[in-house]
């Protein structure tokens, strides 16, 4: 990665960490809003909200504090987290639950489109995608 791109990725990583930290804190300050994203069929919604808030705070810290050699792994974990929570965003859309200013089907649908952006952001800003692409195809595992 060139100096300019590395700087942009570092800034992107810090912004993503700030986003996750803000959301993680929000789980504790305003859990009612986050309840809108817990599918009705999911057990223990209160615990889910608190645990996901802790996870977001841990991921934010990892994005900032992980040594460079571990950043690609952190990127994959953060991207995986965004995949895992996506059903909650779908549930909010399907149930038509208002929260976070998402008070229309259009607003909730646009939010769904943002999730792949978060995944790509995590993979790009941590160098995870570049690290994976730089490996010879023979060394890539099936899970990759």
Structural overview:
This protein is mainly alpha-helical. The chain has one domain (3-129). Helices cover 74% and strands 0% of the residues. The chain is built from six helices and no strands. The chain has helices spanning 3-29, 31-35, 45-65, 71-95, 105-125, 128-134. Helix 1 (3-29) packs antiparallel against helix 3 (45-65), helix 1 crosses helix 5 (105-125) and helix 4 (71-95) packs antiparallel against helix 5. The longest helix has 27 residues, at 3-29. The two termini are 21 Å apart.
How many E strands?
0
Query: Given the helix and strand composition, which structural class is it?
Result: mainly alpha
Summed over residues and divided by their number, the pLDDT gives a mean of 91
Large-scale geometry: elongated
Oligomerization status of the protein chains: single chain
- Nearest-angstrom radius of gyration? 16 Å
Tell me the fraction of residues in β-strands, as a range: under 5%
Cα end-to-end separation: 21 Å
């Amino acid at each position: 990665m060139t100096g300019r791109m590395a700087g942009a990725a570092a800034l992107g990583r810090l912004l993503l960490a700030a986003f996750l930290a803000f959301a993680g804190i929000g789980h504790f300050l305003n859990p009612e809003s986050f309840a809108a994203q817990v599918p009705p069929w999911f057990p223990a919604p209160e615990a889910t909200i608190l645990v996901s808030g802790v996870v977001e705070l841990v991921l934010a810290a990892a994005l900032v504090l992980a040594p460079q050699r571990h950043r690609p792994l952190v990127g994959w974990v953060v991207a995986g987290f965004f995949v895992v929570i996506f059903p909650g965003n779908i549930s909010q859309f399907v149930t038509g639950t208002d929260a976070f200013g998402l008070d229309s089907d259009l607003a909730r649908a646009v939010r769904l489109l943002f999730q792949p952006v978060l995944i790509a952001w995590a993979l790009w800003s941590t160098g995870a995608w570049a690290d994976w692409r730089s490996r010879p195809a023979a060394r890539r595992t099936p899970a990759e």
